[in-house]
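Could you please review the protein record set out just below?
***
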Amino acid sequence: MRAREDRIRDLGGIILEMYRRDRFNHELVTDRCTELIGIERRLQEVDAMLAQAALARRAPAGSTPCVCGAPIVAGSHFCANCGRAVGEAPVVTCSQCGSPLPAEAAFCAHCGTPTVDSGAQYEAEQPAPEPQPEPQAHP
């Protein structure tokens, strides 16, 4: 924060001197502003990490954090920080209707579409058509 405040003060002084001398250097101002934006982005990242750490400290007793260390929000199927599946049964969406369904589901409970893995299994369970005898040619 101190670096940001120093850069803002310096930028104001630079612009004032340019005004006094009637010599505006657009490139210098742009460079200093770009540097300030970079500092502000880094501050936002630090603030987000601090908020995440504060949330982890307030996590309810007994809740287990993700492998990455982030707290798992109650009812979540995936970690909000790293995207890993949490719990015993990760949730995916139906390719047809988009409804959520357990990853191990064979069919969508909403529309009945076979899942990608179960579609192959469903076809494998179907009896194979019996081969038709070839017609014999009469001489």
Notes: Confidence is low (pLDDT under 50) at residues 118-125. Residues 133 and 139 are 18 Å apart (CA to CA). Strands lie at 91-93, 100-102. The helical segments are 2-21, 26-57, 116-125.
